[in-house]
Amino acid sequence: MATESMLKFVGVGQQYPAKRDASARAEDFREIADRYGNPAAEEQSARCSQCGVPYCSVHCPLHNHIPDWLRLTAEGRLREAYELSNATSTMPEICGRICPQDRLCEGNCVIEFSGHGAVTIGSIEKYITDTAWEEGWVEPLVPGRARGQSVGVIGAGPAGLSAAEYLRVAGYEVHVYDRHDRAGGLLTYGIPGFKLEKHVVTRRVERLKAGGIVFHEGFEVGRDASLDDLRAKHDAILIATGVYKARAIAAPGVGASGVVEALDYLTASNRKGFGDDVPAFDDGSLNAAGKNVVVIGGGDTAMDCVRTAVRQGAKSVKCLYRRDRANMPGSQREVANAEEEGVEFVWLSAPQAFDGTEKVAGVRAQRMRLGAPDASGRRAPEAEPDGDFRVEADLVIKALGFDAEDLPGMFGAPELGVTRWGTLRVDHQNMMTSLEGVFAAGDIVRGASLVVWAIRDGRDVSERMHAWLKAKVAGERKAA
Question: Which GO molecular function annotation, any one, does this entry have (predicted)?
Answer without folding.
Answer: oxidoreductase activity
